[in-house]
Amino acid sequence: MLEVNDLACSRGDHRLFSGLSFSLSAGELMRIEGVNGSGKTSLLRALCGFLMPDAGTIRWRGEDIRAQREEYHAELVYLGHLNAIKDDLDARENLRINAGMAGIRLDGKEAVAALRRMGLRGRETLPMKVLSQGQRRRVALARLLVGDAPLWILDEPLTALDVGAVGLMQELIGEHLARGGMAIYTTHQPLEVAGVTTRRLALS
Amino acid sequence: MNPQDKMSLSDSLMLVIRRDWLLAMRRRADVLTTLVFFVMVVSLFPLSMEPDPNVLRKIAPGVVWVAALLASMLSLGRLFSADHADGTLEQMMLAPQPLALLVFGKIVAHWMLSGLPLVLLAPVLGLQFGVPTEGLWVLVAGLLLGTPMLSAIGAIGAALTLGLRGGGVLVSLLVLPLCIPVLIFGAGAVDAVLAAKSAAPNLALLGAALVVSLAAAPWVAAQALRISME
After folding, report:
1. Subunit contact A50:B90, Cβ cutoff 8 A
2. Mean pLDDT of all residues in A5-22
3. Are B157 and B171 in contact, with CB atoms under 8 Å apart?
4. Which of A42, A89, B48, B153 could form an S-S bond across to A93 if both were Cys, CB 3.0 to 4.6 Å?
5. Domain assignments of chain A as residue spans, ordered by start
């Protein structure tokens, strides 16, 4: 489904990686590994199409992602370092707007259900500014519960999460893969999904 | 998921407009700042020169237009920067709708929040300068055509300077020269009426420029955003 061929990226004059090839099919989980500054985030941003690679191709369902931007985006969820959360809105409003931006119509009830699954019961209508970092991250991660995009690209999804939430993330990724989804992620914390072999890609 | 759960293009457009409106309503001070700035700049002119009604009536259109231009620059810096800082812009770029459509929504919201209030206030300020009623109507009509253009052209500048240090000032330097035609035709329309001539040619040119800028600016701004995000 996702095929990366001979990819090369650089930041400024610094070559991050080159000759990178891999493919990801339904039900597969891939972890990008590497030290700080090895280009993990850049690789994920290139996969989203934010970053123009120096060389190589990224194909989704056999077609270059830049040639089918809107179709590709409809099948992709990206969660980066930034949560895309507005302090002036509450958790439910944030989730509904973010889902809407991704083309998914969400009513208030569905939004509340997703937030509760993320362990935010009772926080649904509180302004975001009174929530902690971990709770804000949970609101951002609730985006994964709505919609049916097969490709998840997660950049450090576990930042600021407690042990319970890490367990919940493992559960969510497991369900997603069982539905035939695929996920590619970076993390410095242990994240293993039961019954699935994680493929590893090391950047040096 | 049911097919009716997917959003159409107009739904997405409305979502962006409603979202920006909601955010502005939670932070009303930002909207009010622009308005107060507009009123203050316009009011400074009569105070700084001899209070001759004829002179005031003559300079009124120019003063109101320049003040509107400056006031709309004031809020341009915020057009994309907050969304850029909190990651919303990344998500907008990953939306399954054309980015230009979402940018168009942001331009519309920006105009409703910073352009439309100026249009509504302008007749009051015109009265302060003793502009006759027919002049006031043309002033409002001109601003109604001109201020959306300021938001549209401003969006290109805001997108190009995204993430740069001192971007706020840079936007003004970039956008103000591009807005000169708007100023000339807008103020010219009122001058024409005050000189007992027809304002139609000026307004028609403003209208034509508005159509062109609304068609082109969202697309150009979207391309600029993609470059800024690399």
Report:
1. yes
2. 90
3. yes
4. A89
5. 1-75+150-204, 85-148
- Closest residue on chain B to A94 (Cα): B19
Domain ranges for chain B: 3-229
Q: Does B25 touch chain A (CB under 8 A)?
A: no
Low-confidence ranges of chain B (pLDDT < 70): 1-5
Average pLDDT, stretch A27-49? 91
Q: Which residues on A lie below 8 Å from B92 (Cβ)? A: 101
B6: contact with A, CB 8 A cutoff: yes
The residue of chain A nearest to residue B223, with distances taken between CA atoms, is: A50
Say how many CA atoms lie within 13 Å of B52 toward its Cβ.
Answer: 6
Contact between A104 and B90 using a beta-carbon 8 Å cutoff: no
Half-sphere exposure of A23 (CA within 13 A, CB side): 9
Residues of chain A in contact with residue B87, where contact means CB-CB under 8 angstroms, are 80-85
Start-end of H helices in chain A: 40-48, 69-74, 91-101, 108-117, 133-141, 163-178
| pLDDT computed for residue B226 by the predictor | 92
Which pLDDT belongs to residue B77? 84
Please give the structure tokens belonging to residue A82.
């930034």
B8 to chain A: nearest residue by CA?
Answer: A103
Quick one: which of A86, A49, A63 has its CA closest to A3? A63
Per-residue pLDDT reduced to its tens digit, B74-104: 888 889 999 999 999 999 999 999 999 999 9
Q: Measured between alpha carbons, how far is B93 from A146 in angstroms, rounded to an integer?
A: 19
The whole-angstrom separation of Cα B152 and Cα A137 is 34
Residue A37 has what pLDDT? 86
Tell if the CB–CB gap between A101 and B90 is shorter than 8 Å.
no
Looking at CATH, the fold of the domain delimited by A1-75+150-204 is given as Rossmann fold (3.40.50)
pLDDT number for residue B1: 46
**Under an 8 A CB cutoff, do A103 and B94 touch?**
no
Per the CB < 8 Å rule, is B19 touching A48? no
Contact state of A97 with B19 under an 8 Å Cβ cutoff:
yes
Q: What was the pLDDT predicted at B143?
A: 95
Angle in degrees, 0-180, between the axes of helices B133-160 and B53-74, rounded to the nearest 10: 30
pLDDT digits (tens, 9 = 90+) for A66-116: 999 989 999 999 999 999 999 999 999 999 999 999 988 888 899 999 999
Q: Give the end-to-end CA distance of chain A in Å, rounded to a whole number.
A: 25
> A–B: how many Cβ contacts below 8 A?
83
